[in-house]
Write a structure and sequence with these properties.
Layout: H1 3-6, H2 9-17, H3 26-44, H4 50-61, E1 63-68, H5 71-82, H6 92-95, E2 101-107, E3 118-123, H7 132-144, H8 148-151, E4 155-159, H9 166-178, H10 195-205, H11 211-221, E5 227-234, H12 237-241, E6 257-265, H13 267-271, H14 287-294, E7 297-303, E8 319-326, E9 331-337
Helix pairs in contact: 2-3, 3-9, 4-7, 7-9, 10-11
Length: about 350
């Protein structure tokens, strides 16, 4: 859980408002609080899939999703609610005008007792369509952490404009957690975890999630140890920090090397004591480097100790099976810890 968010006063205030005990890890407390509530909803509604759960949670928190796939959809939704005297919808086009304006949830004034008290408008136009599943869970995260005082008047947008808000960051953490609850993952997968089996899990449990969100979420939630790595050409952190200075001609520009720009170590792998660090250079002998150079897909048994830095630091030794596939910008790789007889843990 992010120590950066744990240090923010807004997060401590939210934890207190939710009635949680004071802690130096308020993010963890809040996520656990939300997970417990969502699991209860799942049991009450006998949800069979993550999509079932999404609908059930929306019903429980009292919101309805309205998707915008075209400008005509936006105008129709705007006019519908303005005609109901929900005048705040008159500004809907401006609220969702930018490329990073993903959604807005608005408190409304239902005319009938069974109508929802909130409307979550999800912008699905253009590239935003790849974030629909995550965006919906982000909006639900706000409502799952809504205190009685906040329910009186509520209007919250999910956009780049407020992306630095600590509470928005926490909602992303919650969305990643409950959007891929481990309880909805299969206890085991025939054979080893693979990109194909992840695709099958996505198809069965969360077909509306984007491929990238599902890949990260399923690896995180999977009960068996796994590390997901995204490798791309990148500079050392130190070189990247001073890169703007190279344009002045004071020194030659450094050459990027293949590095692990993103890494996801799931809970089961952490419980084994495994670690992995972003931006470490990919070992030249790794199948990841081979796939980056030659394309396609390949597998190989390697050891985490191969990963090291120029200063001599290295990961602890542990055999792993590496499954790597070439993508447009680099390589995605699954690192699956092995036992001494080369079987997945």
């Amino acid at each position: 859980m992010s120590t950066r968010l744990d240090s923010k006063p807004q997060i401590h205030t939210l934890a207190s408002d939710l009635g949680l005990k004071a802690s130096d890890k308020p993010c963890q407390r809040i996520v656990q609080f939300v997970e417990a509530r969502v699991k209860k909803i799942a049991k009450t509604f006998t949800c069979k899939s993550l999509n079932d759960l999404l609908v059930a949670v929306a019903n429980d928190v009292g919101t309805i999703f309205r998707e915008i796939h075209s400008d005509a959809d936006l105008e129709k939704i705007r006019d519908e609610y303005v005609s109901k005297n929900e005048l705040i919808f008159a500004n809907l086009a401006n609220d969702l005008s930018q490329a990073d304006d993903y959604a807005i949830t608005i408190k409304v004034h239902p005319k009938r007792p069974w109508e929802p008290g909130f409307v979550s408008v999800i912008d699905c136009r253009g590239d935003k369509k790849f974030r629909i599943y995550f965006t919906k869970w982000h909006e639900l995260a706000h409502l799952l952490t809504l205190t009685p005082q906040m329910r009186l008047v509520f209007r919250r947008s999910h956009s780049r404009e407020n992306s630095n808000d600590p509470e928005e960051g926490l909602m992303d953490v919650i969305a990643s957690s409950v959007g891929f609850l481990p309880a909805f993952m299969p206890d085991n997968v025939p054979g080893e975890l693979s990109f194909e089996s992840i695709s099958e899990i996505k198809k069965e449990f969360c077909p509306d999630a984007s491929a990238q969100a599902a890949l990260i979420g399923i690896v995180k939630a999977f009960p068996n140890p796994c590390i997901l790595v995204q490798a791309e050409l990148a500079l050392k952190r130190r070189d990247a920090h001073v890169e703007p200075q190279y344009g002045f001609g004071f020194q030659s520009r450094p050459t990027p090397s293949l590095r692990a720009v993103h890494a996801t170590v799931n809970t089961a792998a952490r419980e084994l004591g495994l670690q992995f660090f972003k931006n470490w250079r990919v070992p030249t002998d790794s199948i990841i480097a081979n796939v980056f150079a030659n394309g396609g897909y390949a597998e190989a048994d390697e050891d985490l100790a191969w990963w090291s830095t120029s200063s001599g630091n290295c990961l602890g030794s542990h055999p792993v099976r590496v499954k790597a596939k070439r993508m447009v910008d680099g390589v995605q790789a699954l690192l699956i810890p092995l036992t001494e007889d080369s079987k997945p843990i």
